[in-house]
Each structure stands twice: as structure tokens, then as C-alpha cells.
Amino acid sequence: MIGFATRRFVQAMIVMLVVALLSFTMFRFVGDPVNQMVGIETSLEEREALRERLGLNDPIPIQFYNFLSKAVRFDFGTSYQFRQPVSDLFAKRIPATLELSFTSALFALVVGVPMGIFAGLNRESPISKLFLSVSLIGISLPTFFIGILLIFLFSVTLQWLPSFGRGETVQIGSWWTTGFLTVSGLKALILPSITLGLYQMTLIMRLIRAEMLEVIRTDYIKFARARGLPDRLVNFRHALKNTLVPVVTITGLQLGSIIAFATITETVFQWPGMGLLFLQAVQNVDIPIMSAYLLLTAFMFVAINFIVDILYFLIDPRLRVGRP
Amino acid sequence: MSVLDIRDLTVEFPGRKSVFVAVDDVSLSVEAGKILGVVGESGAGKSTVGNAVIGLLQEPGHIAGGEIFLHDQRIDQLPYKQQRLLRGRRIGMIFQDPLTSLDPLQTVESQLVETIRTHLPLTGTQARERAIELIDAVGIPDPEERIGQYPHQFSGGMRQRVVIALALCAEPELVIADEPTTALDVSIQAQILELMKKLCSERNVAMMVITHDMGVIADITDHVAVMYHGKLVEYGETTKVLGAPEHPYTQSLISAVPRPDIKVDRFPVVNYIEAAGTPQRQIDISTHWLGKARDFSTISGPLVRIRDLDMRFETRGSIFPSRRKYFQAVKKVSFDIEQGETFGLVGESGSGKSTIARLITGLYQPTSGSILFGATDLTSLKNRRDVLAMRRQMQMIFQDPYSSLNARMRVREIIAEPIRFHKLASGNAEVRRIVDDLLDHVGLGTAAGQKYPHEFSGGQRQRISIARALATRPRFLICDEPTSALDVSIQAQILNLLKDLQEELRLTMLFISHDLAVVRQMCNRIGVMRHGELCEVSGCDELFEAPQHAYTRELLNLMPSMELLSRASLEPA
Q1: Do A217 and A203 contact (CB within 8 A), yes or no?
Q2: pLDDT digit string (tens) for A198-223?
Q3: What is the ipTM for the molecules in this complex?
Q4: pLDDT digits (tens, 9 = 90+) for A273-293
Q5: Which of B169, B193, B212 is the C-terminal boundary of a domain?
Q6: Which domain does B546 fall in, by range?
Q7: A109-123, A278-292, B416-430 — which is least confidently predicted?
Q8: Closest partner residue to B150 among A218, A229, A317, by Cβ?
Q9: Is-contact A297 A20, C-beta < 8 A?
Q10: B165 — contact with chain A (CB < 8 Å)?
Q11: Which of A176, B197, B511, B555 has its CA 20 to 30 A from that of A279?
């Protein structure tokens, strides 16, 4: 197990290195960073001085090394548009995105898993068929459309929930702000997290249903029934646990994409998270923010994948011993 | 007094167009401490009887008539919840495949304890003690330690013991075993049957064994019920039914069982009702494409000579050679296959017999050693053209007729593919004519060419595989367990077909099987394999009459005795 974890860790490091190289290339070679930073009337000498100061005249490998060592310390330089350190900007935005992602992932799991189990066990029931048809909507409608639809229904027509922003937030520690502790913060979370999690929810539901149908047919489930075990044990201890390996994979990957693709939802709801920041950066060609965003999302994907790989070991004992 | 009493049981599966009667008016009973065997071929409805008793009929099947009594209590009409309480508590069930009947993610202990605690009012510790006792009783060494392990850490035979322990958890009065040893090797099968017999008499359990294997029936049952197409055709004491079968179906079924003790020229075919495929137009081999003088170089001496063949698989990879681990699948094996003979390879699973077949056909590269096909060393062929030329001369027939045919291709295309690939015929019209002839010759008929593999039964599919193998006009045929997935009557037909083809086409065959009786009927010489080594090679009769190697003797002893089977039925009627 430790050997496996180490191997995976090394692989994750390689992926991160490649992404860092991409991100560095973008930062260094897409446009001239100095031109982006200074005005038109800056003299050539001043430009050269800035160039020297930023280390842009060093050999490329050294520049990459410096970029890496700064990135490890969470230092991504200064944003062109805000004239602030990129890390500070992200620090302010990360809590918002993480809370939104976490809530929508929770929503997707809490609603999707039971629906999937139900639809898998009661294949012919009209409710399962209803679930399936409704889930088609979740899969086929684009996120922004669902968001706008929800805003129209709950904010404009019914006026129950706010249509944008995080509501009131509470400061925890030096840089974390949370919307979980105030009523308006919680209210503001509802619409965006449903919008963001709907697709994942339907995906998880359909996956669990398909896996359940598969597992229910296996001999060990028949044998468990033939031993007279109560349905609760058969369905949850034996059947559900055996569906988990593929479900954990997909859920993990989806969690990554929830964080990475929160951009659209954040734009629709004007949610002050990383996605919104990224979109603004794209509009203003703010390369440091873009390259930092690239690195951060890649890091989250890699980290989640790593955790998923370790989870396999906890779920499936066959992987634990004597892997050939 | 009988424990289980089935009276006039009828089970129906309503379909879209008609109702399929899976079990038709069957009456059986089992007494405490006795074993009843239910025997029949696939589709005979024998498993359905077992499922009906335990109340687990597959939807939409239902009991349409009759009564089932367990100790005079009627159980076929109980509500779901009470029926569930019977399962495991009063009726235990053993399934066919021990590899799939245990939950892979739970330890043996947790599966035992949960079953015990479902049925008996015990605390966790008491249940665990009982679980250990049970594991000990079914003959698993170190029960204390092994109970905490997961199913994948047990071998097939050991897992079947765990399954038996699970079935016996709550001291049921009746145990239903559905093909309990079909997935196991002969030596393991003998042990499991022994164990079942012992537990049955020690615990005074009534047992119903459902099987297609006459050997199992002859070995352990007290009574036997023969089923055919849902109907009970013969029922009585095992010695009587097997010794002097009255019904023609029982007679032909028994005669189709390959005998290890007597060699016969052809297998008697079960000719009751089901014909051995419609009689087809036979082609005259001497003038046909198939039998045409082949462009193979003539070979003097043995066709295949295998010398010091070694094959090892890496089981743990490492960049340091010293840390790598290997599994030695084939160890220093040498033997010859003469031209025109059938050479048999027998052994238990994992003994390396299939690996040898794959090495000869070039699916694997041997670690060392040489395979001479005529004068050519197959291991030293470099050039793709030479390899293809060699491959054309040898063809393989695989065990599983379900996965060895491409499900998305029509049968005609499947058979035509090798002809086209090797450019053995000129023009589509000729290919088509050859394919039609081949289909006729293996007894399927030309019409079969239009269909897809899934439209055929296992035996018919194996005929397709044979036709495909013949399509390159090979001189050497490798059959890897060609009939072990088939019923006895179908097996007899396929083996007869192979024998006929061999004579007509003067084929050389390597015949791999775990079934000694089949090997005896098919082969001229036999090699016995164990743990990758070739223990003994000798002529067929010598091997059975006077085995030299201790392991061969052991294998022969383990074969279910056929003495009960009537010799009279062997005479052609």
C-alpha cells in the first residue's frame, strides 16, 4: 500500500510539474510581461531595469526554477489589473468557491445516492422512471440556463432567495470568510449550489442505479438472500458497498470539476469566487491570475485523484494484498 | 419421515407470447440424513425446483400449481417475510461458483457472523465462536486466523467450504446444493463431495444436490430424480436408476457419459427426442477444397517436438531484477506429437496445460526452450510472413463457445475471415461456397451462415468454432477444453465430430482437458501435467491400466466411480 501511494505521489508530482511548465510558459511567453505592467510612456531604460528586477533576463531554466520555488510558497506575482499580489486575491476568493463547491457536492451526494439506490432496487416502479426522466433534464440542460431559470423562478417571481452574491459573511481566522453562519449567507448558497450540483447529482444517480442493477444480479447477492439475510443488510452492506469503487472514481473526478467549472455558475450568480476572478482576468489579459488559476485547479484535481486512489484501498480488500 | 416433500410442483414463466413451463408436475421427497440428486441437462428445470423450494424464483416465474412441505408445514404460500425467515434458518443453499458467491468486500468472519446473528439470538462474541467452530467443521485449517481474511485470500475449494459453512450456519434441516462442484477441480471436487456426505450424515441434514454430472450422482446420492424438459422422467434409488435405467432418456443420458474404464470407438449419442442436428449434406472430402492436396512441406518424424519448454510470468515487477517475482507456469516440458495422432494433456487448473497451447500457437513467447513444428523452430521465427505461414497450419478451438466468437459478426463472416486473410480462395463466390460447405460439414446447415452467434446454443457455437478452425485447412488442431462448458449429450456429439474430422482430414490434434474420461476416449497418447511439470507421458491404455507416476494414480483414484452405471447401456441399441 505504501509503495502504491508513493508511486501515485510521484506520478502526481510529474503531472504538477508539467502543468507548472505550461503555466510558466503562458506567463513568460504569451505577450511581454513588462509591456503588460507598464504604461506607454515608460522609457526603455526603465523597462530594462524592471526586466532585470523581475529576472526576465535570466536563462529560461533559472526563470522556471524561480517560478516554481515561488509557486510552492504560493507567490504568483502581481496582478496586472488590481496591482495586488495574486495570492492575496485568491486567498480572498478561495473560501467562497470552496464553500459553494462543497455545498453542491454534498447536495449531489445526499440527493443522488439515495435516488440511485432506490431506482436500482425498484427498477420497475413509476417513481424510478420519474427519477430517470427528470435526470435527463439535469444532464441535458446547460448550467447557465438552469441558473437563470432558478433565478427567474425563486428570485424574480417568488422573491424567496437572493439572485446574486454571498449574502453576509463571517470572518474566521485571518483569511477565511464563511457564509455558513448567517441566514442570508445560507440562503444565498441555495440557488448556486443547486445549479452547480444538478449535473453531478443526476450523473451520480444514474451511475449508482446502473451499478446497483449490475451488482443485484451477482451470485453473492443471491447467496446473501438465500441465507435469509434481511433486505436492509443485503441492499446496503453487500450491494451498495460493491457499487462504490466506480462511484468513488466518478464522484472524485466530478468534485474536481465542480471546483474547476464553478466559473459559469459564479458568473451567473455574481459569486465572488475564483471562477469569477478568472473570468475577469481572461477579459483583461491578466496573465498572472490565469496561470495561478491553472496551477491551483490542476493541484486540486491531482489531490482529489490521489485521495480517490487511496480510497480504493480502503474499500476493496483485493487491492490491499499482493498486487501483482 | 421426509423433511422436504414436493407434490405436483409446476412452475411457469409467463412470456410475451406464451407461458413457458419450467417445471411440470414434479413430486419429490428428501429424508433426513439422505441425499437426493436431481440430474438433467441445462434447461431441464432442475435449478428451478431448488429456487422454488427456497422461494427465490426469478421474476416473472411463479409456482402455478402443487405444494411444497417442509416437515409437514406448507411453505410455498408463506408471505415474503416468513419465507425469508425459513431461508438460512431451516433451508440452507449452496451455489455453483465459489468464486462469485461470496461478497468480495467483506471478511469471511463478518459474513458468517451476520448470518448467524440474523437467525440465532447470540451475542457478537458467541456468534464469532460459532463461526470459528463452523470453519473448523468444514475442514479449513487455522480457523482462528483464516476467519478474518477476505474471500480472495482463499482458493476455490476453500471458498466452497466457506459457502458450505455459511449454508450450515443455523443448523438447517434441509440443504439445497446447486451444482456444488461443477466449478472445481477433480481432486477438490472429491474432497467437497466427501465433506458434504459427512456433514449430511453427522448432522442428519436432508440434502438435495442439483447437478448435471452423473459422476457426482453415482458418488454421493441415495436417491436420484432425472429431469428432462421440466418433467420428472425417472425417480428412485440411485443404484437402481443408474444400474438399470428404465426410461429411454435416462438410458441414453447414462450412455453418453464418457467412460474412463472402457474405450469405445464413438460416443453413444443421446438420441432421445433431440436429434444430433439435422442430417446435413456431407461433402466428399477427397475431391473438395478442404481435402485438396495441401501445399505444406512434407514432414518426416513427429509433427511437433517440444524441448525443455519454460515459461514464467512476472508476478511482481520491479526495476531491480533481484526483487522481481515470477510464477513458473511451465517447467522444462518436453514431448512429441506424432503426425495424425491425438495427444492429450490432462491436469488440474493451473497446471500449465493451456499455457502450453498458447506457447505453441505463439500467443506467448516462451522464456526458454524450443518448439519444433516439422523442421521449423517456432520460437526463432522473426519474419511476419513465416509466422503467418506457420499459424495457418495450426488452429485452436477454445473452451468457452460464448466468448470466442465475435458477437457482432455473422457466422458466415466469422468463417470466411481466415480464408480471406490467408488468401486461400479466389473470389467471393468461391469463399462463399467453401463457407457453405463447411457449415454443412460440421452439421449446422447453410442457413446458419446468415445468423449471429448469439442465436445458437453452446454446442452449435462450438461447431462454428470448429468450422472456423478448419477454414485455414490446418494440419494441426489444438483443442483447449473444447467440451467442458457443454452438456454430456452435446459433448458426445462434438467429440464425435472432432473424431470424424480427424480421420477424414488426417489432422494431428493436441487435446487439452481436465476430464480423464474424455481424454481416454479421444487420445492416442496422454501427458499428465502438474504444477507446470509433465509427470508422465504414455499411451492411453497403459496410462489407465498401469499408471507409472504417483500423481497419475492419485488422479485416477479421484474420478467419481462409474461402477454403478450399467454396462448394458453401452451396447449400441
Answers
A1: no
A2: 888 888 888 899 888 888 888 888 88
A3: 0.73
A4: 888 888 888 888 788 888 888
A5: B169
A6: 294-410+473-570
A7: A278-292
A8: A317
A9: no
A10: no
A11: A176
